[in-house]
Amino acid sequence: MADLFSSLDGASTIYMWVLPLMFVSFLLTQPQLWSRQMNPTNKNIIFYTWFSKANNRFNLYPLLLMVLFMFLLTNNLMGLTPISYSLTSNLMSMLSLAVLSWLFLLSSGYVYSPIKSLAHLAPQGAPMVLMPFLVIIELISLLIRPLTLTVRLIANISAGHIVLALIANTMTSLFHHPFLFLMFLCSVGYTLFEVFVSIIQAYIFTLLISLYATEHP
C-alpha cells in the first residue's frame, strides 16, 4: 500500500509521458476548439506574457513554452486523481527538466555571443569597487536557477498531495461519524484549490523560463 510520501518515489509509468503528448496533439489537431470558440483577444492575453518576453530570434520558442506549460499542467492535474503518481512531484524528473531548459538557453547564448552573455554578470553602472562581488552574486544566482525552479514546483505540488492524503485518511477514520460530510466538503474545497495551484505553478514555471530567455543576446 502506498504511504503518505509515495508521490516522491522514483517509480513512474509510461502514461505520465504519453498522456500529456496525446493531449497536446489533440489540441493541435483540433483547431476549432481554440480558434473558433475562443475569443482572439482572450487567447492573446493568455500567451502575451510569454511571447512578449521571449527573444524574437526564437521562432519556435513560444511553441516550446506552450508545450512545456501543457505538459506541466497535465501532470499536475493527473496527480490530483486518487492513487496516482505525479511526475511533477519527482525531484530528479523536474530537476532534469529545469536543467535542460536552463542549459539550452545558457549554451545558446554563449555560443551566439559570449561577450554579451558575460556582460549580464556585470550590472551596468555598478561601481568598480563592488564589481567583483556583484559578479559573484550574479553567477551564484545564475547557477541556482534550475534548483529554485525545481524546489518551487515540487514543494507546492507535493504539499497539496500530502494534505489531500491526510484529509482522505481522516475521512476513513470518521466513516460513521457525523463530521464525515464536513470533511467531505473540506476535501472537495481543497481539491478545487489544488486545481488552481496546479495551473498557477505550471504558469510560473513557464513564465520564469521565458524571463530567462530575455537575457539571451
Automatic annotation (TrEMBL):
What protein is this chain from?
A: ATP synthase subunit a
Q: State the compartments where it is located.
A: Membrane; Mitochondrion inner membrane
Q: Which residue ranges does UniProt annotate as crossing the membrane?
A: 12-29, 60-85, 91-113, 125-144, 150-168, 180-213
Q: Which InterPro entries match?
A: ATP_synth_F0_asu, ATP_synth_F0_asu_AS, ATP_synth_F0_asu_bact/mt, F0_ATP_A_sf
Q: Which family does it belong to?
A: Belongs to the ATPase A chain family.
The UniProt keyword set, sorted, is: ATP synthesis, CF(0), Hydrogen ion transport, Ion transport, Membrane, Mitochondrion, Transmembrane, Transmembrane helix, Transport
Any one Gene Ontology molecular-function term assigned to this protein's record:
proton-transporting ATP synthase activity, rotational mechanism
Q: Does the keyword Transmembrane helix apply?
A: yes
Give the residues annotated as coiled coil: none
Instruction: Output the Gene Ontology cellular-component terms.
Output: mitochondrial inner membrane; proton-transporting ATP synthase complex
Q: Which Gene3D superfamilies match?
A: ATP synthase, F0 complex, subunit A (1.20.120.220)
Query: Which NCBIfam families does this one have?
Result: ATP_synt_6_or_A
Q: Name one Pfam family in it.
A: ATP-synt_A
Its membrane topology is listed as: Multi-pass membrane protein
Chief place where the protein resides: membrane
